Amino acid sequence: MKQKQGMNKRRPFGATLTTLMMIFFYLPIIFMVVFSFNSSKSLTHFTGFSLRWYEQMFASHDMMNSLYVTIIIAVLATLISTIVGTLTAIGLRYSKKLVRAYVTQINDLPMMNPEIVTAIGLMLLFITFHIERGFTTLLLAHIAFCIPYVMLSVMPKLRQLDPNLADAAMDLGATPFQTLTKVIVPEIMPGIVSGAIIAFTMSFDDFIISYFATGKGVKNLSIMVYTMAKRVNPSINAISTLLVALITVILLAVNIVPVIRKKIAEKHQNDPTYSPAPRKHTARNTLIFALVGAAAACLIFFRPSTGTQPFAGQVLHLYLPGEYISDEMLSNFEQQTGAEVVVDNFDSNEQMYIKVANGESFDVLIPSDYMIQRLIEEDLLLKLDPAKVDEAMVQIDDKVLDMAYDPGNQYSVPYFWGTVGIVYDKNKVSQEDLEKDGWAIFADPKYKGDIYLYDSERDQFMSALKSLGYSMNTSDPEELKQAYEWLENIVKTMEPEIVTDEIIDNMANARKALGMIYSGDATYVMQENDQMGYYLPEEGTNIWTDAMCIPKSAQNPELAYEFINYAASYEAQMINSLYVGYTAANKEVEDELAASEFEGLDSYIPRSGNALDEVFEYNPDSRKAIAEYWSRVKVVASNSR
Amino acid sequence: MKTWRRLAIPYLIWGSCMLLLPMLLIVFYSIVQPGNEVTTFSFTLNSYVRFFTDPNFLMILWRSLSVALKTTALCLLIGYPIAYWISRCSKKTQNLMILLITLPMWINMLVRTYAWIGLLSEGGPISIVLGWFGIHNVEILYTETAVLIGMVYNYLPFMVLQIHASLTKMDPSLVEAASDLGASPFQTFWRVIFPLSVPGVISGITLVFLPAISAFFIPKLLGGGGWFLIGNVIENQFITVGEWNFGSAISVIMALIMMLLMGLVRRADRKGAKEAKA
What we know:
A: three-stranded parallel beta sheet, elongated
């Protein structure tokens, strides 16, 4: 041993490398913990100590729900897969060779295939057999990939077992059940326990399979982080710190308890009346499970309680774009009705369409105009009962009512509206350039490497078509092809970054000179940074409306009506419009905010009077062409970098 | 004991439905016409033709392979010396080191990757440190470097743990015998220690390469929206484009490539083992 250590002293290289690696491993974790206590939103400057992100975390629906789902799924999946895996392994021990080989082969599938392949397989399975994705499918998927790991760690222990052991027990009069529980299981306990621990960590940490197997807004921690990570959100650091603390406590307990036990045992060595606990492993593992169980129990306890309100205990499934609703507004609604709101977010209308068209059920959707038209044409929306939305409708600005996508608003109640324009850094981009180039400023070599495109096929094609002098609702293949080439040229020569919500914080921090943005996001950016401007090219733009509708698959239409009425009200629209910066559809709120909070911000008041401005219409032919072209543009873009 | 056989029956059904059937479905969807129901369908190889005739997809496939290979190589180059050094420490230090390496793995991967966004962003800690050394204005976030950092960060522990396990399993008397017989430390390493650690290296490579080639959240978070790997293309087909047939075809192609590569690695392993014996 001495010699070995001496040898290591002569290995400064290895020691340095290991130290560097440890720094590399722990740097992000330390960073997370430190910045979870930051008083500002910045991820780069520590401005002072505060607990605001922890408060926000505990107040956030999404975060608490995802933590709850993560733990419940992990506990259930571990329990079920451990029991099933162990029993199957025992059964296989006494089965024919062929059966054993078959099970080994299929168990290898999730382990030898890339995880995304397993995930897609499960998704296709649920879709093909019309099993609605949600909590149950998430749990089934987790059990499916956990069992092979349990069996993998139980099987070797079974092989070590003396085959005569079971016979001996039976000869001595034990029933098969007794033999199983009293003889076999205790013998292979270490294998079962390590299998359970592997299953728990696999389930707790899983992202890819969960992402494809879940639905209806049921999300675990990983999915929550994935969908939220586009905006700077220090609450994610707070929830991570909480996890780090929890895990450290558990691991310390697991590692220290046996040491203390040993110390106590040594102390009592001369005391004949003291007998140490028979199985220290059992104690250790009981501890793990007790801690996990306690954590789960706490979370169940913290769930919203049911009361005497009209919709107490009911659930509203809401599906809307990310960062589009305030938590305050949601909790007000929950307090008034007693219902619980489960929110799911989409990146694009197209993504929403796929889920809804495949039968995933939501109670309220908030898509855009052209998509509402498509949903109506494909008979996926519920016709609203005028008597139930009258109260909401009278408060909405006439300018966004009775539009071509939904004449007479038979299916939808407007929520927010606005334009699509260019957000730019006044220090880098001159007004003259913007006026001279219009949308073509994205192809101006002056700004190479300094622009953002927005990952929305519709809006990017709008800018291309407008720049070329066409209607954005064209279905002429030649015009669409030209628009594709216009965009292809930009991604090939301008090194743009194609982003979604990341643009908001990045432009507020003046990371690039200009980018394509929705008016409401521009409002937020300009409030954060007064060096930013918003420009609408004279060539025309998209005047859009996002509106609330109830899909046919809604399970609770009554609650959906209740939500729509509240979301259109003065109180809710005021909270939401202030929070996200989008133009309220509620006339009173819109006028009030345009004259106060958002005064002078031209992005808040949508332009009127430009004859070239249009509203999107749904056209199946051009939709397909645009979707294919756009996915091609993205592929070309990533190949050009 | 034959009564216990019945214990395996439920799993035969479950496993066939939840593990085997999904794989068959992917293959099925990849060779039928889009828009077909399971009951009425017609076969086509269009999805495969589309993939292999579009240079853009082939470029992305190539890039995914190259990123996965770079990740694996980096993990091996960094991981081996570390595993070797750790295996030479006292038992107590070894246990501590292994604990320190496994500890971060208990924390959610997404969360740890998310932390790198802040670390690597402009004006963040890394750029401040680089600034001390006179390196200014390097953009790391949303580049290949960022993606590689994220990949190595997530997968290096697997490599270190696998190699370490195989190094500690080795009979120390072999090393002593080699040096007693006059081998230089260098010779001892290349002729004795390294060949014996090959199984660990192989399983390390498998554990790194497999997730690295299909990664899609690391490129998405650290590479920005414009940084596509094959995993992102598959995600995109299923989540935003809705073309499952094409997405399934790409998945099948990826699974086949993996099988091929893993087969090659295993053959190399067997060959290496034979040579070591000889």
